[in-house]
Amino acid sequence: MDDLTLLFQRAADVAARHRSGLPVTPVRPEADAATLRLAVDTVLREAPTPASEVLEELVTAFAPGLVATPGPRFFGFVIGGAMPAASAADMVAVGWDQCAFNGALSPAAAVAEEVAGGWLKTLLGLPPGASVGFVTGAQGANTVCLATARQHVLAEAGWDVGRDGLRGAPMVRVVAGAERHATIDRALRLLGFGTAVVEEVAADANGALDVADLAEVLDRGEQGPTIVCLQAGNVNTGACDDLRRACALARQHGAWVHVDGAFGLWAAASPTRAHLVDGIDLADSWSCDGHKWLNVPYDCGFAICAHPQVHAAALSYTAAYLTGQGGPTPAMGDLVPESSRRARGFAVWAALRELGRDGVADLVDRCCGLAQRFAEGLEVGGATVVNDVVLNQVLVSFGSDARTDQVIDGVQRDGTCWLGGTTWRGRRLMRVSVSNWSTTEADVDRSVAAILRVAAASQS
Ligand SMILES: *Cc1c(COP(=O)(O)O)cnc(C)c1O
């Protein structure tokens, strides 16, 4: 075999061994960053190093600092674990090394994004004519979608923001829920709106938008260009806004509706959970992640827009002749902020092919069922679940803030599973997110037992 084949085979072998070990290895890393820093060779060498040696050095140096985030007992943040076919597809994509700028540079990357984007729209119940930009994640998607919203509402007011910027532009109202994700605020900063522009809508008991308050907020201000940001999947509680009623209200005010559905949008793909995002198709733009609940490798997200021409007007190169060569318009490069870009379509295509429609629905249902099991197990053990577990997120208290933080810390050191803390409504809580395709009932039971063991020990 030639050197390249051996090298790639070795890389695949390292990756496969690591993944296969995840169900049994501790979730916490062997070495923290400080330890790793001391161990890693920091000297920039003068001479080249053969590729095979580089690979071995890399693995030896960095493997101790890996966290088992793709494993079945990582429940921190909202983290998926890449599925087998999607991981293999991404490896092949690295081998193919395509630039997903336009159809001329890679017909393969272009058509993979078209097909995978079409499947996504079907699964999520979004308009078939919507445009799909393949971005880095929901942060990227929120930024793209809000840039598109800004373009549209200002164009309606007779202002070309692409040419003239925001100075002297009509005031744009941005209405968003009190429990919106922090990436909405960052997008508003990047887009020159600033965060002070946000007119906040109160949240209901489980962290979804209070629709009556939305009506009041919309009525209160001066009518004009308006963007309403809704959410499917509160990052703490999993709650989804009442999209149907909220969209209807926003429409009455001529607003653009954006839905941040980084993980919650996937409820649409499950017949038993789709009611949570009823009315989803009524919005103008949607953010969704591939690397969270769809379990596609990092990084991968989708900026989806019901108005492809506006999407392209906001994002495309001004030198329009560069894009759209040989493909449909708008071309994929017209829908994202990047110029050169890796080909994310292959892994998404593979994930959806591997799962099929039933598999996606089952993935969503299974994670929701396991979240419920988590909640029940912890409550039986004396902990308090503070949210209504509607999706895959569980918030848990062990009493005081200090005690809850102590339990979280103990669980992280124990290594059976990994959970993080959050502050929700002024209270420190343990946050459980079940988003991984490989998590089983046994994983949940083992994790619940470990958490309760740590909690019992911390009481004495
Ligand atoms: C995770 C998340 C984001 C940010 O997604 P990234 O993929 O990390 O960029 C945005 N909104 C919500 C609701 C999220 O859960």
Automatic annotation (TrEMBL):
The keyword Lyase applies. Its cofactor is pyridoxal 5'-phosphate. Keywords: Decarboxylase, Lyase, Pyridoxal phosphate. It holds the Pfam family Pyridoxal_deC. GO terms for molecular function: aromatic-L-amino-acid decarboxylase activity; pyridoxal phosphate binding. Belongs to the group II decarboxylase family. This is Glutamate/tyrosine decarboxylase-like PLP-dependent enzyme. It comes from Pedococcus badiiscoriae. The lineage of its organism: Bacteria, Bacillati, Actinomycetota, Actinomycetes, Micrococcales.
